[in-house]
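Task 17 of the worksheet. Students: predict the tertiary structure of the chain below and write it out as C-alpha coordinates. Keep your answer in the requested format; marks are given for formatting as well as content.
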Amino acid sequence: MPVVVDSNRTTNNRVVGGQNPRRKAALQFPDRAGRALTIGLVNNMPDAAFRATERQFVSLLDQASDEIPVRLLLYSLPGVPRAGSSLHHAETHYASTETLPGTNLDGLIVTGREPITSDLRDEPYWQSFTRVLEWARRHTHSTIWSCLAAHAAILHMDGIGRSKSDIKYFGALQCTRVSAHALTAGAPATFPVPHSRWNGIAEQSLAAHGYTVLSRTLDAGVDSFVKEQESLFVFFQGHPEYEADTLLREYRRDVGRYFTRESEGYPLIPSGYFDNPTATALSDLQAKAMTCRSKELLTRVAAVLEKQEIENTWRLTAALIYRNWLEFISARKSATQMNAGAQLACAASQ
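Model answer:
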Protein backbone atom coordinates (compact mmCIF):
# COMPACT_ATOMS: atom_id res chain seq x y z
CA MET A 1 0.00 0.00 0.00
CA PRO A 2 1.65 3.25 -1.11
CA VAL A 3 2.14 6.14 1.28
CA VAL A 4 0.17 9.26 0.38
CA VAL A 5 2.20 12.40 1.10
CA ASP A 6 -0.45 14.96 1.88
CA SER A 7 0.63 18.56 1.52
CA ASN A 8 -0.27 20.81 4.41
CA ARG A 9 -0.24 24.00 2.36
CA THR A 10 -1.84 23.14 -0.97
CA THR A 11 -4.53 20.86 -2.32
CA ASN A 12 -1.84 18.86 -4.08
CA ASN A 13 -0.97 15.43 -2.71
CA ARG A 14 1.20 12.70 -4.10
CA VAL A 15 1.32 8.94 -4.01
CA VAL A 16 4.82 7.50 -3.63
CA GLY A 17 5.99 6.09 -6.94
CA GLY A 18 2.97 7.36 -8.82
CA GLN A 19 1.98 10.27 -11.02
CA ASN A 20 -1.50 10.87 -9.58
CA PRO A 21 -2.47 14.50 -9.09
CA ARG A 22 -2.25 15.27 -5.42
CA ARG A 23 -5.88 16.34 -5.11
CA LYS A 24 -7.05 12.99 -6.47
CA ALA A 25 -4.69 11.10 -4.19
CA ALA A 26 -6.20 12.78 -1.15
CA LEU A 27 -9.76 12.07 -2.25
CA GLN A 28 -9.00 8.44 -3.09
CA PHE A 29 -7.02 7.69 0.06
CA PRO A 30 -8.13 4.15 0.98
CA ASP A 31 -9.03 2.90 4.44
CA ARG A 32 -9.05 -0.86 4.47
CA ALA A 33 -11.00 -2.18 7.44
CA GLY A 34 -10.43 1.10 9.32
CA ARG A 35 -6.67 0.55 9.37
CA ALA A 36 -5.63 3.84 7.76
CA LEU A 37 -3.10 5.87 9.76
CA THR A 38 -2.17 9.53 9.64
CA ILE A 39 1.49 10.14 10.47
CA GLY A 40 3.26 13.49 10.77
CA LEU A 41 6.90 14.13 9.86
CA VAL A 42 8.61 17.13 11.47
CA ASN A 43 11.65 17.59 9.24
CA ASN A 44 14.24 19.77 10.96
CA MET A 45 17.23 18.84 8.82
CA PRO A 46 19.36 21.59 7.24
CA ASP A 47 18.88 22.53 3.61
CA ALA A 48 21.61 20.18 2.34
CA ALA A 49 19.75 17.16 3.72
CA PHE A 50 16.17 18.50 3.81
CA ARG A 51 14.74 16.88 0.68
CA ALA A 52 16.83 13.71 1.11
CA THR A 53 15.50 13.22 4.66
CA GLU A 54 11.93 13.58 3.47
CA ARG A 55 12.62 11.04 0.71
CA GLN A 56 14.24 8.59 3.12
CA PHE A 57 11.35 8.54 5.57
CA VAL A 58 8.73 8.37 2.83
CA SER A 59 10.53 5.44 1.22
CA LEU A 60 10.95 3.57 4.51
CA LEU A 61 7.31 4.07 5.50
CA ASP A 62 6.25 2.97 2.03
CA GLN A 63 8.17 -0.28 2.39
CA ALA A 64 7.01 -0.84 5.96
CA SER A 65 3.33 -0.04 5.51
CA ASP A 66 2.40 -3.11 3.43
CA GLU A 67 -1.43 -3.21 3.54
CA ILE A 68 -1.76 -0.40 6.10
CA PRO A 69 -2.69 2.82 4.27
CA VAL A 70 -0.55 5.73 5.52
CA ARG A 71 -1.17 9.41 4.97
CA LEU A 72 1.95 11.45 5.72
CA LEU A 73 1.71 15.12 6.70
CA LEU A 74 4.83 17.31 6.55
CA TYR A 75 5.73 19.89 9.23
CA SER A 76 8.58 22.25 10.03
CA LEU A 77 9.54 24.05 13.23
CA PRO A 78 9.35 27.85 13.30
CA GLY A 79 12.82 29.27 13.67
CA VAL A 80 14.60 26.68 11.53
CA PRO A 81 16.25 28.70 8.74
CA ARG A 82 15.59 27.83 5.09
CA ALA A 83 16.85 29.32 1.83
CA GLY A 84 16.62 28.79 -1.92
CA SER A 85 14.84 25.68 -3.19
CA SER A 86 14.48 24.27 0.32
CA LEU A 87 12.62 27.38 1.40
CA HIS A 88 10.32 27.10 -1.61
CA HIS A 89 9.68 23.41 -0.94
CA ALA A 90 8.94 24.07 2.73
CA GLU A 91 6.61 26.95 1.93
CA THR A 92 4.80 24.85 -0.66
CA HIS A 93 4.50 21.49 1.06
CA TYR A 94 5.14 21.94 4.80
CA ALA A 95 2.97 23.39 7.54
CA SER A 96 4.22 24.98 10.74
CA THR A 97 4.16 22.79 13.82
CA GLU A 98 2.14 25.61 15.38
CA THR A 99 -0.86 24.13 13.50
CA LEU A 100 -0.56 20.73 15.21
CA PRO A 101 -3.22 21.47 17.88
CA GLY A 102 -5.83 21.50 15.10
CA THR A 103 -4.65 18.21 13.60
CA ASN A 104 -5.50 14.59 14.35
CA LEU A 105 -2.37 12.47 14.04
CA ASP A 106 -1.98 8.83 14.99
CA GLY A 107 1.80 8.98 15.07
CA LEU A 108 4.64 11.45 14.63
CA ILE A 109 8.29 11.35 13.53
CA VAL A 110 10.61 14.19 14.57
CA THR A 111 14.11 14.55 13.11
CA GLY A 112 17.13 16.25 14.60
CA ARG A 113 19.32 19.09 13.43
CA GLU A 114 22.97 19.93 14.06
CA PRO A 115 22.96 22.43 16.95
CA ILE A 116 24.51 25.89 16.77
CA THR A 117 24.77 26.33 20.56
CA SER A 118 26.53 24.31 23.26
CA ASP A 119 23.28 23.90 25.20
CA LEU A 120 20.33 22.51 23.23
CA ARG A 121 17.98 24.61 25.35
CA ASP A 122 19.54 27.73 23.81
CA GLU A 123 18.64 26.72 20.25
CA PRO A 124 16.37 29.32 18.60
CA TYR A 125 13.62 26.74 18.02
CA TRP A 126 13.75 25.15 21.52
CA GLN A 127 10.40 26.50 22.67
CA SER A 128 8.70 25.35 19.46
CA PHE A 129 10.31 21.93 19.86
CA THR A 130 9.10 21.48 23.43
CA ARG A 131 5.57 22.51 22.43
CA VAL A 132 5.62 19.75 19.80
CA LEU A 133 6.79 17.26 22.44
CA GLU A 134 4.10 18.17 24.94
CA TRP A 135 1.44 18.02 22.24
CA ALA A 136 2.71 14.64 20.99
CA ARG A 137 2.70 13.22 24.51
CA ARG A 138 -1.07 13.81 24.79
CA HIS A 139 -2.28 13.53 21.21
CA THR A 140 -0.40 10.70 19.47
CA HIS A 141 -0.40 6.97 20.06
CA SER A 142 3.38 6.95 19.49
CA THR A 143 6.14 9.34 18.43
CA ILE A 144 9.62 8.62 17.07
CA TRP A 145 12.45 10.98 18.04
CA SER A 146 15.39 10.65 15.66
CA CYS A 147 19.05 11.31 16.54
CA LEU A 148 19.45 14.85 17.94
CA ALA A 149 15.68 15.08 18.48
CA ALA A 150 16.05 12.09 20.83
CA HIS A 151 18.70 13.97 22.83
CA ALA A 152 16.59 17.11 22.96
CA ALA A 153 13.45 15.21 24.00
CA ILE A 154 15.00 13.41 26.98
CA LEU A 155 16.75 16.61 28.06
CA HIS A 156 13.40 18.38 28.20
CA MET A 157 11.48 15.53 29.83
CA ASP A 158 13.96 14.26 32.38
CA GLY A 159 16.99 16.56 32.33
CA ILE A 160 19.20 13.82 30.86
CA GLY A 161 22.19 15.40 29.16
CA ARG A 162 24.34 13.91 26.44
CA SER A 163 28.11 13.55 26.50
CA LYS A 164 30.55 14.05 23.65
CA SER A 165 32.94 11.29 22.65
CA ASP A 166 36.56 11.77 21.65
CA ILE A 167 35.75 10.04 18.36
CA LYS A 168 32.76 10.13 16.06
CA TYR A 169 30.45 7.12 16.05
CA PHE A 170 30.28 6.66 12.31
CA GLY A 171 29.30 3.70 10.16
CA ALA A 172 26.89 0.80 9.87
CA LEU A 173 27.33 -0.28 13.48
CA GLN A 174 26.36 -3.73 14.68
CA CYS A 175 23.55 -3.54 17.23
CA THR A 176 22.37 -6.22 19.64
CA ARG A 177 18.72 -6.61 20.61
CA VAL A 178 18.63 -6.54 24.43
CA SER A 179 14.92 -6.30 25.33
CA ALA A 180 11.81 -8.13 24.21
CA HIS A 181 9.44 -5.50 22.82
CA ALA A 182 6.73 -5.28 20.18
CA LEU A 183 8.86 -2.87 18.13
CA THR A 184 11.71 -5.33 17.69
CA ALA A 185 9.61 -8.49 17.39
CA GLY A 186 11.02 -10.64 14.59
CA ALA A 187 14.27 -8.68 14.37
CA PRO A 188 17.53 -10.66 14.32
CA ALA A 189 19.62 -10.85 17.49
CA THR A 190 22.19 -8.55 15.87
CA PHE A 191 21.69 -6.13 13.01
CA PRO A 192 23.45 -3.10 11.48
CA VAL A 193 22.19 0.47 11.89
CA PRO A 194 23.83 3.59 10.42
CA HIS A 195 25.15 5.99 13.04
CA SER A 196 26.71 9.41 12.54
CA ARG A 197 27.15 11.24 15.83
CA TRP A 198 29.67 12.53 18.33
CA ASN A 199 27.34 12.43 21.34
CA GLY A 200 25.71 9.67 23.33
CA ILE A 201 23.50 8.99 26.33
CA ALA A 202 24.54 7.01 29.42
CA GLU A 203 22.42 3.86 29.65
CA GLN A 204 22.28 4.07 33.46
CA SER A 205 20.73 7.55 33.21
CA LEU A 206 18.01 6.20 30.93
CA ALA A 207 17.28 3.27 33.25
CA ALA A 208 17.07 5.60 36.26
CA HIS A 209 14.32 7.60 34.55
CA GLY A 210 12.17 4.72 33.35
CA TYR A 211 13.44 4.22 29.79
CA THR A 212 13.83 0.75 28.32
CA VAL A 213 16.81 0.12 26.04
CA LEU A 214 15.86 -1.99 23.03
CA SER A 215 19.25 -2.29 21.35
CA ARG A 216 22.82 -1.24 21.95
CA THR A 217 26.05 -1.19 19.98
CA LEU A 218 29.32 -2.77 21.06
CA ASP A 219 31.39 0.43 21.09
CA ALA A 220 28.91 3.31 20.77
CA GLY A 221 26.48 2.55 23.59
CA VAL A 222 22.72 2.72 23.25
CA ASP A 223 21.14 2.44 19.82
CA SER A 224 17.37 2.61 20.48
CA PHE A 225 15.18 2.99 23.57
CA VAL A 226 11.56 3.69 24.52
CA LYS A 227 9.50 5.26 27.27
CA GLU A 228 5.88 4.30 27.83
CA GLN A 229 3.62 7.14 28.88
CA GLU A 230 0.43 8.61 27.42
CA SER A 231 2.13 8.10 24.05
CA LEU A 232 4.84 5.51 23.46
CA PHE A 233 7.96 7.57 22.79
CA VAL A 234 10.57 5.79 20.64
CA PHE A 235 14.14 7.09 20.43
CA PHE A 236 16.77 6.29 17.78
CA GLN A 237 20.36 7.50 18.20
CA GLY A 238 21.09 5.99 14.79
CA HIS A 239 19.50 6.45 11.38
CA PRO A 240 17.67 3.32 10.19
CA GLU A 241 16.04 5.48 7.51
CA TYR A 242 19.35 6.19 5.73
CA GLU A 243 19.74 5.23 2.09
CA ALA A 244 22.58 2.97 0.95
CA ASP A 245 24.93 5.83 -0.04
CA THR A 246 24.11 8.36 2.70
CA LEU A 247 27.20 7.58 4.78
CA LEU A 248 29.34 7.57 1.63
CA ARG A 249 28.16 11.06 0.73
CA GLU A 250 28.80 12.29 4.26
CA TYR A 251 32.30 10.81 4.25
CA ARG A 252 33.07 12.37 0.85
CA ARG A 253 31.81 15.74 2.09
CA ASP A 254 34.00 15.59 5.21
CA VAL A 255 37.07 14.53 3.22
CA GLY A 256 36.51 17.55 1.00
CA ARG A 257 36.33 19.79 4.06
CA TYR A 258 39.66 18.45 5.23
CA PHE A 259 41.36 19.23 1.92
CA THR A 260 39.89 22.75 1.81
CA ARG A 261 41.00 23.24 5.44
CA GLU A 262 37.44 23.77 6.69
CA SER A 263 38.32 20.93 9.06
CA GLU A 264 41.67 20.06 10.59
CA GLY A 265 40.84 16.46 11.33
CA TYR A 266 40.68 13.80 8.63
CA PRO A 267 37.32 12.02 8.92
CA LEU A 268 37.02 8.44 10.09
CA ILE A 269 36.23 5.82 7.48
CA PRO A 270 32.67 4.59 8.23
CA SER A 271 32.88 1.33 10.16
CA GLY A 272 31.30 -1.83 8.77
CA TYR A 273 30.33 -0.03 5.57
CA PHE A 274 32.86 -0.42 2.75
CA ASP A 275 34.26 -3.74 1.57
CA ASN A 276 37.78 -4.59 2.75
CA PRO A 277 39.67 -3.57 -0.45
CA THR A 278 37.91 -0.19 -0.48
CA ALA A 279 38.52 0.41 3.23
CA THR A 280 42.20 -0.45 2.73
CA ALA A 281 42.53 1.89 -0.26
CA LEU A 282 40.86 4.74 1.62
CA SER A 283 43.05 4.12 4.66
CA ASP A 284 46.20 4.32 2.52
CA LEU A 285 45.02 7.59 0.96
CA GLN A 286 44.20 8.96 4.41
CA ALA A 287 47.75 8.27 5.62
CA LYS A 288 49.16 10.15 2.62
CA ALA A 289 46.70 13.02 2.96
CA MET A 290 47.63 13.61 6.58
CA THR A 291 51.15 14.49 5.47
CA CYS A 292 50.24 16.31 2.24
CA ARG A 293 46.86 17.83 1.37
CA SER A 294 47.19 17.70 -2.39
CA LYS A 295 44.43 18.07 -4.96
CA GLU A 296 45.69 14.88 -6.59
CA LEU A 297 44.96 12.87 -3.44
CA LEU A 298 41.46 14.31 -3.19
CA THR A 299 40.88 13.25 -6.80
CA ARG A 300 42.04 9.74 -5.95
CA VAL A 301 39.68 9.51 -2.98
CA ALA A 302 36.81 10.66 -5.17
CA ALA A 303 37.74 8.03 -7.77
CA VAL A 304 37.64 5.23 -5.19
CA LEU A 305 34.26 6.36 -3.88
CA GLU A 306 32.85 6.79 -7.38
CA LYS A 307 33.22 3.06 -8.03
CA GLN A 308 31.33 1.96 -4.92
CA GLU A 309 27.99 0.22 -4.98
CA ILE A 310 26.95 0.04 -1.34
CA GLU A 311 24.63 -2.73 -0.18
CA ASN A 312 21.93 -1.51 2.17
CA THR A 313 22.43 -4.17 4.85
CA TRP A 314 20.13 -2.49 7.40
CA ARG A 315 17.00 -1.84 5.32
CA LEU A 316 15.11 -5.07 5.96
CA THR A 317 15.43 -4.74 9.73
CA ALA A 318 14.61 -1.03 9.57
CA ALA A 319 11.44 -1.77 7.58
CA LEU A 320 10.48 -4.51 10.05
CA ILE A 321 10.86 -2.17 13.04
CA TYR A 322 8.85 0.56 11.33
CA ARG A 323 6.26 -2.03 10.32
CA ASN A 324 5.98 -3.07 13.97
CA TRP A 325 5.63 0.60 14.90
CA LEU A 326 2.73 1.07 12.47
CA GLU A 327 1.10 -2.14 13.76
CA PHE A 328 1.50 -0.89 17.34
CA ILE A 329 -0.17 2.42 16.47
CA SER A 330 -2.97 0.63 14.59
CA ALA A 331 -3.66 -1.67 17.56
CA ARG A 332 -3.63 1.17 20.08
CA LYS A 333 -5.86 3.31 17.85
CA SER A 334 -8.35 0.44 17.53
CA ALA A 335 -8.38 -0.14 21.29
CA THR A 336 -8.93 3.58 21.93
CA GLN A 337 -11.84 3.67 19.48
CA MET A 338 -13.39 0.57 21.03
CA ASN A 339 -13.12 2.05 24.52
CA ALA A 340 -14.67 5.30 23.34
CA GLY A 341 -17.50 3.37 21.67
CA ALA A 342 -18.14 1.36 24.81
CA GLN A 343 -18.29 4.52 26.91
CA LEU A 344 -20.79 6.11 24.50
CA ALA A 345 -22.93 2.99 24.53
CA CYS A 346 -22.85 2.93 28.34
CA ALA A 347 -23.81 6.59 28.55
CA ALA A 348 -26.67 6.10 26.06
CA SER A 349 -28.11 3.23 28.09
CA GLN A 350 -28.28 5.21 31.30
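Marker's comment: The CA atoms of residues 13 and 32 lie 20 Å apart. Confidence is low (pLDDT under 50) at residues 10-14, 17-27.
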